Amino acid sequence: MKSHTTLGAETLQEVQKAYPKNGFVRLGIEIARSHHERWDGTGYPHGLAGTAIPLSARIMAVADSYDAARSRRFYKPPLPHAECCARHLPPQRQLPRSRGGRGFPRLGGSLSAASPNRWTSDVNSEIHCALIAR
């Protein structure tokens, strides 16, 4: 499971050889490689911490974590919007159950300001379907 970050980055590095000046491919490499890093340095694959994690990957990590928490799974119900957002606040403002190293303090405030109705698995599914249709 943890190898998907490295495999994704390596795959995009091969694409970059064909498109060396494409900024989107470079951004994709950054996101693929670092979207499971954690603010406190306990993530993978490189154990980056804080602002050493590329901003693009921090944004993706917040969106990915939020979507996973808000989505119903056979083994868990969806969490409420406020609890999902609390995971990304500074530790002193997190709910006890949400504390951990995954939080990205400056991004968490932006996420909590978003409407809970805009970030549901239904919206995510619509976006995914639209991308596949292209």
Describe this structure in words.
The chain is mostly helical and 134 residues long. It has a domain at 60-133. It has helices at residues 4-18, 23-34, 55-70, 81-86, 105-113, 121-133. The protein is globular and about 45 Å long. The chain starts with a helix and ends with a helix.
- The span between the termini is 28 Å
- The overall average pLDDT, rounded, is 77
Beta-strand content estimate: under 5%
Q: How many helical elements?
A: 6
Number of strands: 0
Percent range of helical residues: 40-55%
Q: What's the alpha carbon Rg, rounded to whole Å?
A: 16 Å
The string of secondary-structure elements, in order, is: HHHHHH
3D shape: globular
Low-pLDDT runs: 93-100, 119-134
Alpha-beta classification: mainly alpha
Oligomer: single chain
Largest sheet: none
